[in-house]
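Model it.
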Amino acid sequence: MTRARLFTVLRIVLALLVVTAVSIAVARNWAEVSTDIRNIDGSTFALAALLVCLPPIFTLLGWRVLLADLGTNLHVAPAGGVFFVGQLGKYLPGAVWSIVVQAEMGMRLQIPRRRSAVVAFVTVALAAIAGLLVGMPAVPLLLTRGDSATTGWVVLLMVPLLCLVLWPKLLNWLVATVLRVLRREPLERELSGRAVLGASGLFVAAWICSGLHAFVLARGTGVDYDTPALALATISGFALASSLAMFSVILPAGVGVREGLLVLMLAPVTSTSAATAVVVLSRFLTVMADVLFALLGWLYARSHHLITTREEREQDPQQDTVVVDGPTGG
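Modeled.
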């Protein structure tokens, strides 16, 4: 067995172990958790489902802004076809499958693989930084279960450091350095400050909407809560837990990491069973949203030959592609 194959097997085994551990923890407390889930009525669940559909859209728009800034203007429809189908790759162990899929589909839109890969990496990086910025107020909840007096300095230190990473000159230097280390040609142009700021703003909006769906679910459990504390634990806490989970590249979509961190921050504000109910329903809704958008993207991509079978490519290797380099507006 090669080293790469062994590493892949270890990733899958670790992912299965994490999922099993989470499942056992939920099963042991299922009586209380199921009660909290039943307290969430249909209208609350529908509102949470609507809110959870907004982050993929905001993230797509941010990805599209970065892609346009590097030289490829895509209409929203083909951009969604490429982006949403590729996003399913995050559910596979590893950190490159989304990038590979988006690069291959992008080639049919005449997007250079190098450009697709850079935009994918920058999107993940900026999204993680935006999540950490939104999540900074919840750091005390995670470190000291609410003792902000001893952890406030962490927030004061981390915010300027994270903002520094958003500085376009530093970001472009990092991109150029990575390409040089990988012995790849440099990009035709650099990312502009306007694009970095615009994309980051869209990613912040995505995190806020993600946290709002958790807030709605937590309120729906019917437990007693303090509104500001619940908003902090769900909105900032969800962003912090999810962005930290993004660094666990060996686990698919950070499964288990996000749930564990969010329960730690949410349980003191509500209850352990209510927090568990929120993370269970949240994971279900986010997966369903990803599948829904991927299905819509796949239908568009398939009908416009962004996804083709081997037989189709052999019969017509010069299939027409959709128009690129058009207006950036959707």
